[in-house]
Amino acid sequence: MDQTPVLLLSGAGLPAWIWDEVRAALPVESRVAPRTAEGGPADHARAALASVTDWPACHVVAHSIGGPVAAAMAALEPQRVTAVTGVSAVVPAAGSSFVGALPRPQRYVMGGIVRLVGTRPPQKVLRSGLCAGLDDALADRLLTDFAPESRALYLDRVPPHRWPTRTAYVSTTRDREIPPELQEEYAARLGAAARPITTGHLPMLERPAELAGLISG
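Above: the chain's sequence. Below: its structure in token form.
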């Protein structure tokens, strides 16, 4: 069995505790990457890599906006990023950004919202999209702990990079945030075939044991 430890990159605004049950089910050591208050994907990538300096290598699991951060990690220290798994992750091409990787017209709408309003959607939008599939108590806890990200995380471009030879992608078939057909495109960009899980955007909360198995498999 591969013993490479797992570094978990959360989606935008999401607290570290969303991974608790997945981590308990993983057969290897794992950590959740820290967030930075400011800066783009490269700044988040540096913080993530600095949090695991005692690991010679890591398997990066990137959820949602964690995709651009994983790309920046692969650019900064490719020798340490030996595997990448996307989980309903946006995977931008080199020289593009999270917003730039979205289809038209969504990229223009999202870009304008981020620049003018910020990165915290209204509670009603979060509850109907991000929290779809969660019970009310869990959704309430998540919304209480949701923290807006920097604009740069959405807008800054990722540097040129190469993905490691080991890649995988878990697609969420009931996702209201990133349509499954778009996830297929991101999986192809990562060089992986999409492996479906029947959840909304947060499989780590809906089906943590199944997600842990897909990460380990």
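The longest helix spans residues 66-76.
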